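Thread: "does anyone have the structure for this chain?"

Original post by V.I.:
We have the sequence but no experimental structure in hand. Need at least a predicted one for the grant figures.
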Amino acid sequence: MTTNGVDPQGTLTQLRAFLAQAPLTVDSRLPPERELCRQLGVSRGELRKALATLEAEGQLWRHVGKGTFIGSRPTESLADLSVTTSRTNPAEVMQTRLLIEPEIARMAALNATAADIAEMRTCMARSRTAASWRQYESWDNRLHRSIAEATRNTLLLTIFDTLNAVRRAVAWGRLRANRTQPDPQHHSFTEHEEIVAAIADRDMEQAAQAMRRHLQTVERKLLNQHQ
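Reply from O.Q.:
Generated one for you, tokens below.
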């Protein structure tokens, strides 16, 4: 059964195309459902089915009363997580990332699909064209999560999300010069390319080493800033 000549699969295709073309970054809120229905020319029922499909894929997440957002649902702020956040610091977070994320990259090199790698490359491209540090950080965060998703390990992804939630909650100094956006020679661009290239080549050891080198650079800049 169709509505206004649009079948459910057609609505999903239209929604995917809209999201691909819209100037939205990770964590951006979509227009209200009524506005999306108007723009796509579909019924609210069909739109909601399409939104549910993308939410199940991890492309969107919805918060009742607040709207629909790009990306995967963030880890909820649990009481014990709040306690952990209050007791840790950026140096500890970096130490933990260095223990976990290289192994995530190693497993991603084993299990990543072509779609996973395409998503990583999209994130890298978007980060390079980011018009602000906020946009860059959003795409940088999405890249690291897409690598974790590529492990195809639910528990490991949950551990990553928990660590990432703590990282984002801890008071971080800004690792940036007096610029409104990343420098074209920002170290992460090349380092990210090395990580993703190793994952695409199925080189597990090189993927782990590339991730370790990247995080060591981030750690060094963080510690130098606080000296």
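V.I.: this helps a lot. Residues 1-6 have pLDDT under 50 and may be disordered.
O.Q.: and The radius of gyration is 19 Å.
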